[in-house]
Amino acid sequence: MKGTIGLRRLRIDCIVGIHPHEREAVQPLFVDVELDRDFGPAADSESVVDTVDYSEVAAVLSQLAQERRYQLIETFAEEGAALLLERFQGVRAVRMTIAKPQAVPEADAAFVRVERERAT
Length: 120
Prior knowledge:
By secondary structure, the chain is an alpha+beta fold. It has one domain (2-117): GTP Cyclohydrolase I, domain 2. The protein has helices spanning 40-45, 54-67, 73-87; strands at 2-14, 27-38, 91-100, 110-117. A four-stranded antiparallel beta sheet has the order 1-2-3-4.
């Protein structure tokens, strides 16, 4: 039974950007993440060990953002998607949208979206 688990508007504060003022202070990113996996084992057992723990997903992405200073949200998106596939073995595919609301004053946010599938 295929399903999708995810988080909407996960706020992650980090250093990100190419401009000098962006390299000095943290700014928010908002992350939407979707993880595809088989829900069968979790539906049968009703145990979190048979699925993906939302809190762990949030912690993994937050820790990644704190470990380095990114110039591009594209880099964070690529590294985040790869890390989620590595960390959560039952996940078949990852889709992430990362919004940077302070990037362009005339827009609500700039964003990138990545989609990655586990190699078969």
